[in-house]
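Hi team,

As requested, here is the filled-out complex form for the adenosine-5'-diphosphate run. I kept the field names the same as last time so the parser does not choke. Let me know if anything looks off before we queue the next batch.

— J.
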Amino acid sequence: MEEFDVVIGLEIHAELKTKTKVFCSCKNEFGAKPNENTCPVCTGMPGALPIINKRAVELCIKAGLCFGCTISHYAVMERKNYFYPDLAKAYQISQMVYPICVGGEITLKDGKVKRLNRIHLEEDAGKLTHISRATGTLIDYNRGGTPLIEIVTEPDFTSPEEVDEFLKRVRESLVYADIADCKMEEGGMRCDVNLSLKPKGSTILGTRTEMKNLNSFKSVTRAIEYEIKRQKEILLDGGKIIQETRKWDDAKGKNMSMRSKEDSQDYRYFPDPDILPISITDDDIESIKSEMPVLPQKRREIYVEKYGLPEYDAQILTSSKYISDYFETCLKIYDSPKKISNWIMGDLLKLVKGREEFTFPIEEKYLCEIIKMVEERLINKNVGLQLMNDVIETGKSPAVLAKENNLIVVISEEEILKILNAFKEENSKVVQDYKVQPEKVIGFIVGHVMKSTGGKANPAIVKELIKKIF
Ligand code: ADP
Ligand code: MG
Ligand code: ZN
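And here is what came back:
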């Protein structure tokens, strides 16, 4: 890539987590029987009138808040006219001139800022299944009318790596904020890649192609790599890029021309006369703000800077909101970030390995109790792990189980301290000797503690404590 700059802009669609569809009250769910969740509105019957789902508008605003967009006070739903059998009305209700969110940005790890152009609300289309020439095509309108947000970026990306990081950031934020599940394998998040090349350093953008509906991170990367190579070869050969939509075939690892690219004026957008303009007040925005969780990016910053965790730990602990919330609850109980992190990353995650959705099988307070026992060296790590398994199996508390099974063979630091302090008060001569020649008397003091505890103290800890307080 010596002689060209790569320019990429993204259009990302995500299905919103609402109970019902965006312009009717049919259920918004994945996996129902074909055409089970349909009505006159979402099958485009003439004369059927849409309503608008308030929650969908709120979730679109919430998405805007995730990425620092300006939230519009006035937004309009418009009709985007085109015919395709998965869209029974022959127009999609979308947004053009007055989207709900404008601007915004995401800063990548290396500090580069990638700008959003807008986030708007629209409806999804139905699903076509092509059987064969003879049998024809099946249409399922269940997905028709599912609320979508479309995130449009500026043409700010220069490599598949940047795109990959950006998409992952978008997905984790939307999932954390409970806006969308972004299950790419179910089509819950899809990405269109617009890509062009220009002579290195030039400020004029080249002609772009668009690859639609890429539905995995891997295929986005591969599709971009392929398209860069394809365009480069054409340009080096003296050819011209045609503005068109190209279909990425993941199995074949290449793309094909699908249709020449339509311009927005071809769609004859106009405000939908059946849906009133949306008015959004500052109070509306404030109340949605109050629903916002701390986003993963911010959490990672706090984990590294405030809790002193390695970047690696912070990444894994924030890999889901559930894990991150669990970790933070533990911290409130036992303020020892690295210790808790080690247990979660090493031991708890092992228990749920390979599962996509999970909850840890032990309550935060019980885990913390066990960690504390190990830290205070009342039990060793292996006994701690066994104790954790027992808690999971029996549901009993660690304290009860430890007692029942006689796990605690040493006494706590607290108890040792009590004995040492009493000893100090009663033996001023030994204290003085210790100050002069510690190594001569330390054995004597340890011996005293061992005797008074019936040998149940850990001599190493006793020594440490003597050094601390004498
Ligand atoms: P549409 O594709 O619906 O016509 P736009 O023209 O607004 O919408 O562009 C869609 C996407 O294409 C945006 O992400 C934008 O950044 C990107 N884009 C526009 N021009 C170029 C270009 N020359 N090269 C690469 N990406 C581009
Ligand atoms: Mg487009
Ligand atoms: Zn419906």
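Two things worth flagging: The chain has a mean pLDDT of 94. Residues 21, 24, 26, 38-39, 41-42, 145 surround zinc ion (ligand 3) (CB under 6 Å).

Thanks,
J.
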